[in-house]
Amino acid sequence: MREKIAVITGASSGFGFLTALELARRGFHVIATMRNLEKRHHLLNEAETCGLSKQITIYQLDVACEASLAQFKAHINKIGRVDVLVNNAGFAVGGFTEEIPIDDYRKQFETNVFGAISVAQIVLPIMRKQRSGHIINISSISGLIAFPGLSPYVASKHALEGWSESLRLEVQPFGIHVVLVEPGSYETNIWSTGKHVSEASLHPHSPYYEYMERLEDHLASGSHILGNPSEIAQKIAWIAEHDRPSLRYSLGKGVKFAIFMKHFLPWQLWERLVQKQLK
Length: 279
Known about the structure:
There is one protein chain. The protein is α/β, with parallel strands linked by helices and 279 residues long. It has one domain (5-278): NAD(P)-binding Rossmann-like Domain (Rossmann fold). Helices cover 49% and strands 15% of the residues. The protein is built from ten helices and nine strands. The protein has a seven-stranded parallel beta sheet with strand order 3-2-1-4-6-7-9, sandwiched between helices. A two-stranded parallel sheet has the order 5-8. Helix 1 packs across helix 8 and helix 3 (66-79) packs parallel to helix 4 (102-130). The mean pLDDT is 92.
C-alpha cells in the first residue's frame, strides 16, 4: 500500500506546525508548506528530535501568489497522490470598518478564502480520480459568531464556512470529504504576530480608540483560559483517518455553548450580552 500523502498550508507555526508532526507520527508523508522558508528550521528541528524527518517535506507556498501556486501545482501533479489537504494558512486583520483600508479586506480574503480555494482546486482533480480524499478547512468560532473590531477576519471565516458547505455537497459523490474545524481561543500566534490591527483604530484620536482598548483588554483577560493547540492537531489527525467525518467540529472551552446561545437567543438579547462583556 502506498504511503498516504498529506498537504498542510501554513505549517511554520500554530495548528499547521503541530498537525504536520501529528500526521507524520501516524504514518503520513507530510508536505508541509509555508510562505517564508526561513521559518522552516523550527519544524525541521522538531521533526529531527521526534525521529520524523523522513516523514516531512518542506515546500515553499504562498497561497495568495499565482506564480507560487502554479509551481506547487506542478509539484503535486508529479507526486500524483494527495489523501489529505489541511487548509490552515491564514492571518487576522483587526480594527473598525470605517478605518480599515479596503485593500486590507482584499488581502484578508486573498489568503483566508481565495488561498484555500486555490489549493483545493490543485488537489481536487487528483482526489477525484482517486475517488477518495479529505479536505480539512481550518475555520474559527469567528466563522459562526461575529465580534466587533475583527470584521475582515470574521467575514473571511464566514465566507470559508459557506464555501466549504457547497464544496462538500459537490465532491461527496466522488468520495471526497470536506470538513470544517472551528477552534475557539487557543494558544497560537494568530492573535500576536498573526494579527494586523489598523493603525487608525489604535490612534488616540480615533473615535473607536476606547472601544478598541476594551477589545484588546477583553482578549488579554482571556489569555489564562486559552486551550492547548495540540488538541486541534489531534482532532485534525483523527478526521484525516476517519472514513465518514462530519461537516463541522467546533472545539474549545465554551464554544459549543456560545454557538447554541447565539442561535437560541433573540438577536437583541445576544447583542446586549456581547456589549456587556466589553464593558
